[in-house]
Amino acid sequence: MLCPCGSERAYSLCCQAIILAKKSASSPEQLMRSRYSAYATEQFEYIFLTYASASQVEQSIEDIAQWSKQTHWLKLIIHQVSDYQKDLASHNSAQVEFSAFYRHQGQIWQMREKSHFIIEQGLWRYLDGAVSDNQVVQKPKRNDHCFCGSEKKFKHCCAKSL
Ligand SMILES: [Zn+2]
Ligand SMILES: [Zn+2]
Predict the structure, then answer these.
(1) Which one of the ligands is nearest to 156 CA?
(2) 7 CA distance to ligand 1 centroid (A)?
(3) What is the predicted pLDDT for the residue at 83?
(4) What is the block-wise mean pLDDT of the chain (162 residues), using blocks of 10 residues?
(5) Among all ligands shown, which has an atom nearest to the Cα of 38?
(6) Are the C-beta atoms of residues 15 and 37 closer than 8 Å to each other?
(7) What is the CATH number of domain 11-161?
(8) Where are the domains of the chain?
(9) Rounded to an integer, what distance in angstroms lies between the CA atom of residue 14 and that of residue 12?
């Protein structure tokens, strides 16, 4: 299976190894992608564990699962990653702006967020995010361009995961 994160690589060679803790995310973008893939494959413990410790106290695995249960994830688009130091030894942070497309109660939604990542004990962690947009997008006809901006026909793109 292709990785849910949209890398067009096999899941086993992309986010799965990170989710199974066989390797750690080497960049904030990679952590972002792996967290999205964990949502898409319902691995809520991983999502909980990759919150920064300050954010972990505000939720539980049950909360994450509850929130995600009615959501069917369709697509992740990374818009921008801020400059950051690649030296994991120094204190550091980064921002990743993305859109996540999902189906909820029969409609297709686009959520755009700027996420804040920090390094804790040498590992990238998700601190928090500011949602700038969360709205229903129009479902295209099968031969029209997909709503996600891929420039593929809808039937060859997100229609496959609906
Ligand atoms: Zn991936
Ligand atoms: Zn699409």
Answers:
(1) 2
(2) 6
(3) 81
(4) 95 97 94 97 96 93 90 95 70 90 95 95 94 96 96 94 86
(5) 1
(6) yes
(7) 3.10.450.50
(8) 11-161
(9) 6
